[in-house]
Amino acid sequence: MRNCRVYRFTSRAKLEDLVRVLVEGDIGGETIEEISHDMLRFGDRVVGPVMDILEKTNDDETFYRLTYLIECLQEPAFVRPLMKLLFTKRLKPALRGQLINVLNSFDVDISDTLLGSGPVGPRETAEKFADLALRDENFLETFLAEFQASDLEHQLKMVNRIGALKSPRAVFLLFLIGSMRRSPSSVQAVMQLGRIRDGIALSALRRLVTRTGEEEVRKQALRSIRRLELLGVKRERRFFSFPEGPIYRVLVSRIDGMGEYTVTVSRFYDERKNRLAMSIFHINENLGLIECYGNFRSTRKNFDSSVSGLVKARVSLDVPYEYGVSLIRHGLYLTELQGGAYPAEMPLREQIFSPRELYPERHVFEIPGFSEEEVRDDLTLLEKTDRLIDVPECSEWVISSRKTFDYAEEIFRAGDPISDEILREPRRRNLLRKFIRECVYPLRETIRERLLFTAELMEKGKRSRRHVRAVLCAALNIGEEGNISFSHHPFIEALARESLKEAAEYLREGADYRGFLDDFEDE
C-alpha cells in the first residue's frame, strides 16, 4: 500500500517520489499515463532523473516503463540523450527496438543521426551507426526501411555521409544499398565503395558484380574495382560472414484467406551444420513479394523449435528447395508486373541464395503423377470435395465482404440456429445460390488458382495422394470444362456456407465489420 499512498498525493509529491513509484510500484499503463500528466509541471527537469535510471538499469520492465513515460511526456529535451543511448553497446536488440519506437514518436528517424542530428560529431555518429548496423540486425532492418522510404535527395545524403567514413565499417551498409533493386541511389553507393582503400571494399564490389541484376550497378562496380586496383588494393578481405553451406530446410505455408503465403529458406554457414541463417518471403497472390525478414544468427535447434508447431498443424510444409525458389521468383514476377516496390530487407535476405538465383519468373503449376482428365471426371470424388473445407490447407478460406454480412443477416434471423441444416430450407437455399452467383462467382479464377496452388503444395510436401487428388478434382471442375455448374459445385457450396456462418457468428457477437470491409475494399 506504500506505493499507492505515495501516488495518491502526487499533487504535492516531489519529482524523485514519482520516479520511484514508476520504478518500484506495482503499476500498469494507465497509471504511467497519469504520472506523466503530473510530471508535466516539472518541464525539462524530468530528463535528468529519468535518463539516469534508464542508462543504468538492467531490468527490462523498468526500461519499458520509463520509455513509455517518455513517449507520454513528449518532452523534446529527451531526444538528444535518447539518441546517445541508442548507440550504447550494452543495449539488448529488443530494448534498442523500443528506443527506436520512442524516437519515432518524436518524429525522429534513426537515419537522422547520419545527417547531423547525432549526439556527437557527424563522423563519430556515422561510425557508431555503421558499427551498430553490423551488430544489431533489428537496427539494420529499421535503417533499411527508413532509407527506402526516404526521397532520393535524402538517400544520396546518407550514402555520401556513410561513404565519407572511408572506413571498413561503412562497407556493409554501402554493399546493401548497392544491392537494392531498382534503386537510383545504388550506383552512388557502389561509387563510394570504390573510394575505400581496403580489401574489404574490394571483396564487397566483386560480390556485387556476381550478384546484381542491375546493369548500371554492375558497370559501376567494375569501374570501382579498377580504381582500387590502380590504388594498389588487390587482396580481398572478408567484410561479412554470409552462409555458404548446405541448404537445411525449406517451408511453404498454406495460402490464407487473404491470398498470402510465406516461403522460409534456411541455410547453414558451413559444413558443420549448426549455425544457420533463415530468410522468410511473404507473398501475395496478386501483389507479389510484399515483405521479407529473417535472422542471420540462428541455430538448427532454434530454427526447428520455431517451426515445429507450424509443421505439426500443417500450417507449413517442408518442400524441395527448387520449389521454394520458384515461388519466390513468382513473387518477384508479380511485383514487377504490378510495378510495386521491393521490400526494404530484400538486399539482406537474398544473400543466402546463390548469385542471381532470384529473378522474376512466372511459376507454372506442376502436379506430376495425375491425369487431369481422369481426376476431373471422377464424379464420386467431386461429390466429396465439400469436405475439403475442413482440411487444414483450406480451412482459413472464407469470402469476407459487406454483402456476405448482408446475406448472413437475411438468412440467419434472430433466434435461428447457425447451421448447415437451416441452409437446406428452400427459401434460404435460394438465398445461398444467389449469394454464390453474386459474391463467389466473380472470384472463381482466384479460387481455382488457390486450389491448384494447394494441390501442388500438398504434393511437394508429401501429403497423401488421396488428398492431393481431391483438391485437384475440385480445381479442375471450376470453369468451362468442369462437370458441374459453379453454384452446384460441392466445394463452392461448402465455402459459401462457411463464409455466411462465420459472418452470422460475428453479427450475433455484436461484431459488425461492414464498415471496416467497406474501407478495406476501397483501398
How does this model look, in words?
The chain is α+β, with helices and mostly antiparallel strands and 523 residues long. The chain contains 25 helices and five strands. It is globular and about 75 Å long. The protein folds into four domains: 1-108; 112-240, no CATH class; 247-352, no CATH class; 372-522, no CATH class. The relative contact order is 0.06. It has a five-stranded antiparallel sheet with strand order 4-3-2-1-5, with helices on both faces. The chain has helices at residues 2-8, 15-24, 29-39, 47-56, 60-73, 79-86, 93-105, 122-135, 137-149, 152-163, 171-178, 186-193, 199-211, 215-230, 300-312, 321-338, 346-349, 372-376, 379-383, 402-411, 426-440, 444-460, 465-476, 490-508, 514-522, and strands at 247-253, 260-268, 275-284, 288-299, 316-318. The model is unreliable at 1-12 (pLDDT under 50). Helix 3 (29-39) packs across helix 5. 54% of the residues lie in helices and 8% in strands.
